[in-house]
Amino acid sequence: MTQVKQMTDRFSSTVNRLGLDLTILAPLIALVVLLIASSLASEYFLNTRNLTNVMRQVSYTGIIAIGVTFVIIGGGIDLSVGSMVALVGVLLLYALNAVTDPVMAIVVGILVALGSGALFGVFNGLLVTRGKITAFIATLATMSIFRSVALYLTDAGEVVSRNPLFPDLGGGYWLGVPIPVWAFLILAVGAHILLFYTRFGRHLCAVGANAQVARYSGIRVRSVILGSFTIAGACVGLSAIMLSSRLNSISPSDAGVLYELDAIAAVVIGGTALSGGKGSIWGTVIGALILGIINNMLNLLGVSPYLQGLVKGSVIIIAVLVQYKRQQ
Length: 328
Known about the structure:
About 75% of the residues lie in helices and about 0% in strands.
């Protein structure tokens, strides 16, 4: 046991000297192993079309997971993001269909989606900061509220876009890569800069680590927490744009269902501590990729879709246990 501990300590010190973050390195190694195993398990996995589809699917929940990363680092949780996708998507398509000029309609629709998503995030944040409601309870309530409002506005029916240009936004390609994937990667770069190279990012980590100490240090804790929920809402708005554009419609009854599970799982697998205070955007990106590849392999191997939830839940438990052991 002593030799194993010495080897582990030596490995950790080497990683630190190289400037690598072990919380990112571990998920990255898991991703590489999963890629190798998947390529050996199915001859169709490395097919260009299959990999493109995996990346496109990952981007929808990955964009949301980036926003949820900020919330979790700040010591909160957001269970409403899946239902928020449905409501934002409905508002987006209503705004899109209300404007006759196709180009202007897309501009208006994007502004409505990002604005309404951010506004719903502010609502969640106010419930937590001003209403003094635990984030889990507050977003559990708004999860039901957002879905219910979306169903009421559409009478539980599907909303279809009449804009001829809209499907190209989420279904198009640039340099051979789907546009949603570009949106996911560009957002990840911007979020990484915001988290690690700005005052807001430093304050967010401080609040998540210990809100009381952060308050004594002069940090505006309420504003920081409110900002994290606003970012999460805006990310939901971006995801709703890409998803509804790809489908050219939105179904409020099933749009975004279980997206909150995928987003939180990606964040946890990526090494962000559920207790708050520390995390990584690129870890979340890797976590989203791991989940996407697992789902894809289950489908390619003919595993029942009813077991996918079992696999995701097991992966979350393992990731949390690894975090717990690492903190010991």
